Amino acid sequence: MHILIIGNGIAGATLARRLKERGRGEELMVTLISDEAPYHFSRPAMMYLSTGQLRMEHLKSFPDESWDALGISRVTGHVERIDAEAKQVHLSNGTVLGADVIVLATGSRPNVPTGLNTSLHGVHTYTQMQDVAALDDSLKGAHHGVVIGGGLIGVEAAEIMATHMHARQGSSITSVVREHGFYGNMLPRFESQLVTRHLQQHGIGVRVTTTVSSIEDHDGDGRVDHVTLSDGTVIPADVVVVATGVVPRTQLAKDAGVTVDDGIVVDEWFRTSNATSFPRMRKSIIYAIGDCAQLPWGVQQTWYAGRMHGEHLAEILLGSDEPFCEPIEYNSAKFFDLEWSTYGRVPAESDSASSVLLTDTNDSRCLRIVHDAKRCVVGIHALGLRLRQSTCEQWIAQCKPLDHALEELRDVMFNAEFVPAFVGVAK
Q: What pLDDT is recorded for position 388?
C-alpha cells in the first residue's frame, strides 16, 4: 500500500513516522510532500530562530538520517491538483504520483484582511519558514514596527521586533488589537488585560478596540512608512506584521470535489466526502488531518491536536476501527516571559457565574477554574503558573466537583512550593 501525505508539518510528519514505525516494513510505502521546506521543523519554535536563540538545526525535530532509515520518501514540490478517481497527485513540475491513499495535511494560511496594501516592502505575515528570512531582512535598520492583531502570532511578532529594535534610539513598537486586549477573543477579559499590561511593561505600545484602515507608502518607493488606524491616528512603520489569524488551507480539497466548510470536512475516522470512499471498510481515498481538517466538533488548530491526529490516523490506516474521540483541549504559549497553559474549555466570556478566578496580590498571575451548571470542572487555565497536565485532565475527565478542585488546589500547581497565597475574586 502506498500512502501519500501532502504537508510535512506536525500532523503529516507524525503520521508518516508512526506508519513506518508500526507498519509492515517494505509492504507499506510512505511519501511526504511539501513545498515549504524539504524537512519537518518545529513551527512553534520559529520565533526563537528569529530572535537568535536557536539555529535552524535546532528546529528539526528528528535527525535528517532518520527519515531514510525509516524508509520515508520525501518530495519537495507544489501539488497543483488531486485526481481522486485515478488516485493521482499532480505536481507543478509535471510529476504525477500515484497512491492508494492520499492524506491532506496542508495546514493553514494567513487570514489577511481585505483592503490592506500588503504588497509593500516591509509588510509581512509570519506563518511559513520563508517568513523568517523575509522579516529578518526588513528588521535590519528598522526603528518603527507595527503588529496588526492580538493573537499568539501577534505576540511573537512583537517580541521579535523588541529583540531587534529596542536598543535603537527612538524606536517604537505598536500592537494594534481589535479586541479589548491581547487574545481577547480567546481569553476572559481579566486575563486579556493582564497580558496587555505585561506587553506594555516590555515596551510594546498597545492600541486596543481599533483596527488598521490602511498601510501606506508616502514616499512612493514601494516601502511601507506608516499605517493609519480606524480612528484616524497615523503611526510610523518601517516594518509591519499582519497577524490577524489563520484559516485552513482547503483549495486542493475543494478542487478535488471534497466537501469543505470552515475546513476540510471529515468524520471521526478522518475520512473526507470523496466519492470513492468505502464506508463498510471505514476506508477512503482522501483523508485530512491537522489544521486543515474540520472534525464533527470543529477545526482544531494547535500543535498538540495535529500530533494526535497523525498518531490516530496511522492506527486507522494500519487496520484499527477505533474512531477519534474529541480530546480534552490543551494549548500553551508564552507572552514574552509570561507562561500560559489551558486545559478543557475556558471561554472568553467566562465570568464569576461560570468560573472561579484566583490571583496573586498584585494581579500579575492567575488561575481560572471553569465549571458547568452542576459545578463540575470543565476547564482550567493559568498565566504565570505551571500546572500539572495529568491532574488538570483528570479533573476534567472525571467531572470533579469545583469544591474538590479548590480544596486540592496545590495538587494542580507544578511549582506549588514557590506560589504565594492566591485569593479568589469575582472578575
A: 92
